[in-house]
């Protein structure tokens, strides 16, 4: 199949997720499309993925142990400098544990192009039957929202997907799947690399909205997110990273109160 419009560049950051990426089927899918490119940024050494797999699949095996935003920015610059990505093309941030049909990615980008939308996300589910929603779209949080969530109280920032049937604007969506027109991602300067992990997705959506570009949610375009949440038990490295990112985000956006 061919995409006769803008080109699509998909960024996947792998932390040793070789098997997961293979099993997702995306490597085989990409080969069936003309203007869709996949760039896998390995964040760990010694990847077993084949670097010469296809003309539309690329692997970046350098700059290891970087943060989420840093890695995706590396991919964006690679697409721009080596793959001739243009301003009107689309840059997709995709987790390795998200299973998606590339027909849906093309449908999304075609709709974004037709409606002049520069930032969008889709409906993620947790199960193969697509019956359990992933809470991937939310309102912008305040510090108290993070705090109460850690204490086990209901997270009031979560948007109830069952009540959303039509395309709409949301504040932010998880970095598991985010789509940007390339010129808008460039205008934003990509992800803020000072966030090593966590909250960089909230931050880029916040900055996008501040620039006058809201995030559009497509409830009828979906994928399955086989989420493997890192342990955030008290004083684990992920807990520390999360707390640091929360403080940075709240300070940057004046969201403490």
Report on the architecture of this protein.
This protein has 257 residues and is of the alpha/beta class. The chain is built from 8 helices and 11 strands. The strands form 2 sheets. Strands 1, 2, 3, 4, 5, 6, 8, 10 and 11 form a 9-stranded mixed beta sheet that branches. The chain has a two-stranded antiparallel sheet with strand order 7-9. The protein is globular, with a radius of gyration of 17 Å. The termini are far apart. The mean pLDDT is 91.
Give the percentage of residues in beta strands: 15-25%
- Beta-strand segment tally: 11
Large-scale geometry: globular
Indicate the percent of residues in helices.
25-40%
Cα distance, first to last residue? 51 Å
Mean pLDDT: 91
* Biggest pleated-sheet summary: 9 strands, mixed
Q: Briefly note the structural class of the backbone.
A: alpha/beta
Instruction: Note poorly predicted spans.
Output: none
Quick structural overview:
By secondary structure, the chain is α/β, with parallel strands linked by helices.
């Amino acid at each position: 199949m061919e995409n006769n419009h803008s080109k699509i560049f998909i960024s996947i950051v792998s932390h040793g997720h070789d098997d997961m990426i293979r099993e997702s089927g995306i490597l085989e899918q990409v080969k069936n499309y003309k203007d869709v490119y996949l760039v896998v940024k390995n964040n760990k050494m010694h990847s077993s993925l084949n670097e010469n797999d296809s003309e539309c699949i690329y692997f970046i095996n350098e700059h290891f142990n970087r943060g989420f935003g840093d890695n995706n920015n590396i991919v964006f610059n690679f697409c721009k400098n080596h793959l001739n990505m243009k301003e009107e093309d689309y840059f997709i941030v995709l987790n390795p544990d998200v299973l998606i049909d590339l027909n849906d990615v093309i449908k999304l980008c075609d709709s974004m192009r037709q409606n002049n939308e520069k930032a969008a996300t889709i409906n993620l589910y947790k199960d193969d039957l697509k019956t359990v929603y992933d809470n991937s779209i939310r309102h912008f949080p305040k510090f108290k929202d993070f705090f109460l969530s850690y204490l086990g109280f209901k997270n009031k920032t979560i948007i109830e997907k069952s009540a959303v049937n039509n395309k709409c604007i949301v504040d932010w969506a998880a970095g598991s799947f985010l789509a940007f027109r390339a010129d808008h991602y460039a205008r934003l300067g990509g992800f803020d690399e000072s966030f090593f992990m966590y909250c960089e997705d909230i931050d880029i959506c916040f900055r996008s909205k501040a620039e006058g570009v809201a995030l559009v949610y497509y409830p009828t375009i979906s994928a399955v997110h086989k989420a493997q949440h890192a342990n955030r038990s008290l004083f684990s490295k992920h807990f520390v990273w999360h707390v640091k990112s929360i403080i940075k985000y709240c300070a940057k956006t004046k969201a403490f109160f």
